[in-house]
Amino acid sequence: MRVEIYSDIACPWCYIGKRRFDRALEAFAGAEDVEVVFRPYQLVPDAPMEPSPHRAWLEERYGPQSRAMDDRVAALGAKEGIRYDFDAALHVNTLHGHRLLRLAEQEYGAAVQRELKERLLAAHFSDGADVADAAQLTEIAVAAGLDRERVTAFLAGDEGTAEVRAELARAAQIGISAVPTFVFEGKWAVQGAQETETFLRALEQVAAETAV
Questions:
Q1: Which domains does the chain possess?
Q2: 43, 67, 174, 201: which sits with the fewest CB atoms below 10 Å from its CB?
Q3: Is 0.70 topped by the overall pTM?
């Protein structure tokens, strides 16, 4: 079974959704036959490459209610073992992170890509990292298992940029308008950071539907 997860590094609900899906996969009897691949999506495609404080950006966009929004996410995240630090988090473009995720899948495989995704989310939401900065991205990628020289050369150029932009366009074409969205076998979709039980039922139902 193939599960494609459309997700953004700067999406707090994507982090919660990933953790819940991971738990569902651990409980799924056929987990060894499931390949999980992350696909790019950008909540704010025109976000600048220069970082600014997340809190200020969110308040400008949503007003006084923005802190309550963050607090709600942080409380839910804590139940999933996620430590959100929205005071340290930065608002910045995620394109280069998506490029790295594509590189990880293409050259290292789905398991390494999955590890990189977890580390990018943690860097962005827990550590206050600048996920548009080449040096910081390199350290995150190396920790996930990518080769330092390959990553350094990759981020120094535009390799993968056109391909990621094409994937972003394809996501829009197939109707992905919110994240996280989990697409099973290219046919069935589950949208949002659903409860673990919901993801487990989806895995079991798709497995039954596709059984030979």
A1: 2-210 (3.40.30.10)
A2: 174
A3: yes
